[in-house]
Amino acid sequence: MAAESAMNGHAPDPQLEALVSAVNATRASHDAAVADLLRYIGCDQRDVPLASAPTSSAPPFPEPERRADLIGAEWVEVATAAQRFELSKEVIRSWCQRDKTFGWKYGAGWLVSVSKMRARLGIR
Question: Three-state SS across 20-53?
């Protein structure tokens, strides 16, 4: 980085160099942790698809109908979803707040789509 700055006629920026170095160290640490995890669970890293942004504006999974007769079947309370999918209620509430198709504000709480939970967690 310093050599690149000197070649461009700019004085080296020690703070920028320190930040870039920290990012590179974090990236290397992250990559090593992911590789360790994949080895531990017995996956070949080439078999794991990279996350990418959706290319279509259409939702990847259609929103289930919000009907009262589906409460308890397709739509369950946050506490029920947390217990069923072994997640914290806070995580599920945050998903509902970020993705309005994921949950349904019903009374004082949220109802969560079981099929959306399964899709998000990769469960068939």
Answer: HHHHHHHHHHHHHHHHHHHHHHCCCHHHCCCCCC
Nearest Cα to Cα of residue 120 among 99, 90, 97, 89? 99
- Write down the pTM of the prediction: 0.46
Token pair belonging to 19: 């930040």
Report the DSSP pairing between strands 75-77 and 109-113: antiparallel
Asked whether residue 46 is domain-assigned, the answer is: no
- What domain range includes position 11? 2-41
- Residue 84 has, within 13 A of its CA and on its CB side, a CA count of 19
Give the pLDDT confidence of 63-122 residue by residue, as tens digits.
666 666 677 677 899 999 999 999 999 999 998 888 888 888 888 888 998 888 888 888
- The answer to the question of residue 97 being in a domain is yes
Token couple for 50: 């990279």
What does each C-alpha distance from 47 to 28, 34, 35, 43 come to in angstroms?
Answer: 20, 13, 12, 7
